[in-house]
Amino acid sequence: MHSRTSTALLVGALGLAHGLDTSRVPRPDLGTVPYGVNVDRCTVPGKAAITFDDGPDVYTKELLDILGRNGVKATFFLCGDNGRFGRPTIADPSGPYPDLVKRMYREGHQIASHSWGHLNFTTISSDERAEQLLKLESAFVDILGFFPTYFRPPFTSFEGTEGDLAHWGYHNINFDLDTNDFNELYDQSRATVKSALAQKGPSGSSFITLLHEIHELSVTEFLQFVIDEARKYNYEFVTVGECLGDPVNNWYRDPASGGPWGGPAAPPVIKATITSSSSTSSSESVSSTTSASKPKFSESTKSNSTTTAGPGVTTVTSSTTTQAPKTATPAATTTPAPNPNAAGRAEGRPTTFVFLCPFFLLRPGLMIGNWGHTPLLLPLLTRERPDRKSSRYCCNDGYHTSHHLNPRRHWRHHPVSFLQQKETYATEKALVFHNIDYLMITIKLLQKDYLHLGKCLVPLGEQIPLSLEDRATMLRRHTRRFSEAEICQKFKVLASKSS
Q1: Which end of the chain is more exposed for a tag (fewer CB within 10 A), N or C?
Q2: What gap in Å lies between CA 418 and CA 82, rounded to an integer?
Q3: Positive or negative, the Cα torsion across 345, 349, 354, 357?
Q4: Of residues 109, 114, 171, 212, which has the active-site annotation?
Q5: Mean per-residue pLDDT for 211-232?
Q6: Is 53 tagged catalytic?
């Protein structure tokens, strides 16, 4: 662990794009909830604290809609940049996340930290932990005007980090009901929730449950199940702070004083509005947003101002009389009239070579690739998971199945999902290839080069003891022509109907 003075020297390396440097903010203990130690259960009975990790993400808006319809308050452990390729960071003003975070706070949900980049805190240094915490604090100050005192370490790995978390003034929040929804095996997750609730009763128990807002079905289907199931037992849905009996002011820290924030009635930032009326009969309205100071006026300006102040808000209305400055009249110049047909006109060559050519080259490639792997895998048709709304047939080739099971899943998560369900794929005799793409599969099929395909095959289950020649024979068998009877049996169609 290090001192805050030494940490201040690291601020230049933090990469803070904007916002306040929080490394020197005082961090007195707020309330009675312990700091730095593992907190994995509520202290107030009869409460259900639903928590979400890894957001914000593309499903967060829908998640907030569902919580609003059900009148449920939740706790969001947010990341600054959770590594989801191509997505903006949490404070990027061009992205949707600042408004979503403000909406969370406005609708009464609790906002907490999950670190900037979702790194395992047990495998990084104390200085790197500080960077992960402080960089996200700066983003929260940018968005809301304060930063949280509640934290959940990524992967819930905290052994050996307790001193750092206490040093930076964080409650280390764990959970006592893990739905394991990240596996996307929702039948098992439902059984876990049912079993946990059946063993407890709200009169003498409560729970903190974990879900992930980056998984589509966790948001669109599983969340509603958790809400409905908990309400059968008359649990009251609250935030983590409420289930620990912690006053709302203690959930967040004021970046100016280090003390508790002003509470949910305080807006995220201080807003000032200045309206001036000039003697030249022109009016100008200027709006500015600041989290540090009130607007400054020129000494030569005569003004009558009225200031109204609420908790954390300042409004200044100014009526100013000034003399319009005299300016020299510029010499007349002739400007060519704009061409009304130029607006919106597509430039031919850039459009052709930047858009059309890549598009028409890519599309046939994708079609050929799909044609190539489809005949190879049709003998291995399998049902999708029964907990999906739809149960269409799909090719069982690892990534392709994973893609069709959840089309909106980020591409980085497909390999993770596959490894978590490797035994299922092995049982269903999946074909998994490496070091080869769909186009090359197509070429090798046309060449009938099954030995090369066998070398690229990753054996699973019954395929493991097969020799290279046996793998080639298996793949050759998969590409043989189906008989009409086999087609009818595969799709359970009567032979009489198929004729």
Answers
A1: C
A2: 20
A3: positive
A4: 212
A5: 95
A6: yes
